[in-house]
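A reminder from the course coordinator: this example appears on the midterm review sheet, so study it carefully.

Given structure:
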């Protein structure tokens, strides 16, 4: 098959928008490296991070079913993506229906992940929310040296529905207890066992 719209490798700096809610739904993005935050906005304009995408995840997959983008997708770190035009996906789906089904299955999985994320990270006492966030980051974004990217406090607050001040206070307490170690380059490491013991029954 001859593809008229090539797939491009596209790089984004920290804070760059990959797409916005109001963007024309023309591309799906495969995250090759870095982290992407998907942001929705409450009626009062308050941003909520509803999910973090990691390498291998798809950003904008909802448009493959004919919809619009459902979030702002913002680079949480420097990010490298493959930008796939919808014209390519439509053509491939026509010729390979199985591919279209795979996109739908990945979208369903993404929605289930988002539901689980919101339930675990935005309910319960404040310290539990931050602890669950740190454990998630360690589990899903850890590097060979055991460190992981630690988003800025404002972003963590938007993930767990807490103020920046509350997040800063909790992380400072964990740091004083030597349960979390802050490292250069916006990275951190944790003692998973000790951190897990701090989760309070609710």
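Designed residues:
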């Amino acid at each position: 098959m001859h593809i008229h719209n090539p797939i491009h490798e596209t790089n984004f700096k920290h804070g760059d928008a990959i797409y916005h809610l109001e963007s024309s739904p023309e591309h799906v993005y495969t995250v090759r490296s870095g982290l992407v935050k998907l942001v929705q906005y409450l009626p009062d304009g308050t941003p909520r991070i509803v999910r973090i995408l990691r390498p291998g995840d798809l950003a904008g997959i909802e448009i493959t079913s004919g919809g619009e983008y459902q979030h702002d997708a913002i680079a949480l770190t420097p990010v490298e993506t493959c930008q796939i035009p919808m014209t390519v996906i439509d053509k491939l789906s026509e010729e390979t229906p199985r591919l279209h089904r795979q996109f739908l299955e990945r979208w369903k999985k993404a929605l289930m992940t988002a539901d689980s994320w919101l339930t675990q990270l935005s309910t319960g006492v404040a310290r539990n929310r931050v602890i669950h966030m740190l454990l998630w980051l360690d589990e899903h974004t850890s590097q060979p040296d055991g460190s992981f990217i630690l988003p800025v406090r404002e972003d963590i607050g938007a993930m767990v529905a807490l103020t920046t001040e509350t997040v800063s206070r909790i992380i400072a307490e964990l740091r004083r207890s030597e349960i979390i170690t802050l490292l250069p380059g916006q990275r951190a490491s944790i003692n998973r066992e000790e951190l897990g013991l701090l989760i309070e029954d609710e």
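The CA atoms of residues 105 and 125 lie 33 Å apart. The radius of gyration is 18 Å.
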